């Protein structure tokens, strides 16, 4: 979704539309790929995440209505923690 490079699905992180702690629409990581609903996939790297944010790819891919102010903070935090563990 961010860099649009093609790789095996198991190498990608699935994200879904959810809600943040304050109830606003948010992009939520789904590492087990078991959450219901529409999902999108991206490389689990900060670079791919930042590119997807810059391209405004999350609302389009997850079909979140425009103008709702979708938050990507939860996904950013998840990827930041993952980068520090590696």
Can you describe this structure?
With 86 residues, the chain is an alpha+beta fold. Helix content is 33%, strand content 20%. The chain has a 3-stranded antiparallel β-sheet. A hairpin with a 5-residue loop joins strand 1 and strand 2 (25-30). The longest helix is centred in the last third of the chain and has 13 residues, at 73-85. The two termini are 22 Å apart. The mean pLDDT is 91.
- Assign the CATH class: Alpha Beta
Order of helices and strands: EEEHHH
CATH architecture term: 2-Layer Sandwich
The name CATH uses for the topology is Hypothetical Cytosolic Protein, Chain: A
Question: Would you summarize the structure shown here?
Answer:
By secondary structure, the protein is of the alpha+beta class. It has a single domain (9-85), classed as Hypothetical Cytosolic Protein, Chain: A (2-Layer Sandwich).
Overview features:
single chain; 86 residues; alpha+beta; Hypothetical Cytosolic Protein, Chain: A; three-stranded antiparallel beta sheet; 3 helices
How are the secondary structure elements laid out?
Blueprint: E1 13-19, E2 25-30, E3 39-42, H1 46-54, H2 57-62, H3 73-85
Antiparallel strand pairs: 1-2, 1-3
């Amino acid at each position: 979704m961010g860099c649009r490079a093609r790789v095996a699905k198991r190498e990608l992180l699935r994200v879904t539309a959810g809600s943040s702690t304050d109830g606003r629409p948010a992009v939520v990581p789904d590492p087990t790929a078991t959450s219901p609903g529409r999902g999108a996939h991206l490389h689990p790297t900060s670079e791919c995440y930042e590119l997807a944010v810059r391209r405004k790819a999350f609302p389009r891919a997850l079909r979140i209505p425009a103008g709702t102010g979708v938050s990507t903070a939860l996904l950013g935090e998840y990827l930041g923690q993952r980068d520090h563990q590696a």
